[in-house]
Amino acid sequence: EPNGYLLEDTLHSPTSSSSDGELLHQTVPLPVFLEEPTDTYVIKNKPATLQCRAAHALQVYFRCNGARKQHPSSVNSPPMQQDFVDPQTGVRNVEASINITRNEVEEYFGKDKFKCECIAWSSRGQIRSQPAAVDVACK
């Protein structure tokens, strides 16, 4: 039946749309981590700081124990995300950091340790960093 073949052809070889898509993908690279969060400790009343930096990202944020970490509303806290352009390469880097307090770690009753990962996002897609565990150091 000729109609069946036509349908097949359009499914298998969308010539114009695929090449346009590939061109777009070449200009927008996936983000690349320049710095990933590492395992750390909360010591007494000093919160643990996790840092993350990525190139080619529109946004970088932390997810802890599966939930996105929102920016605390206190006025004194620095912004979670900072953007800057590398003067040598012209590549835009996005940096994010979060503080994890002792209370947060002690109030977390999951099966595993308190863990955070960094997500770097661009219009091309998103990548996840290695997970970083946060422990409370012995008193």
UniProtKB/TrEMBL annotation:
It is a single-pass type I membrane protein. GO terms for cellular component: membrane. Gene3D superfamilies: Immunoglobulins. It holds the Pfam family Unc5_NetrinR_N. It is found in: Membrane. Keywords: Developmental protein, Disulfide bond, Glycoprotein, Immunoglobulin domain, Membrane, Receptor. Its main location: membrane. Residues 1-22 are annotated as: Disordered. SUPFAM superfamilies: Immunoglobulin (SSF48726). Residues 27-134 form the Netrin receptor UNC5A-D-like N-terminal domain. This is Netrin receptor UNC5A-D-like N-terminal domain-containing protein.
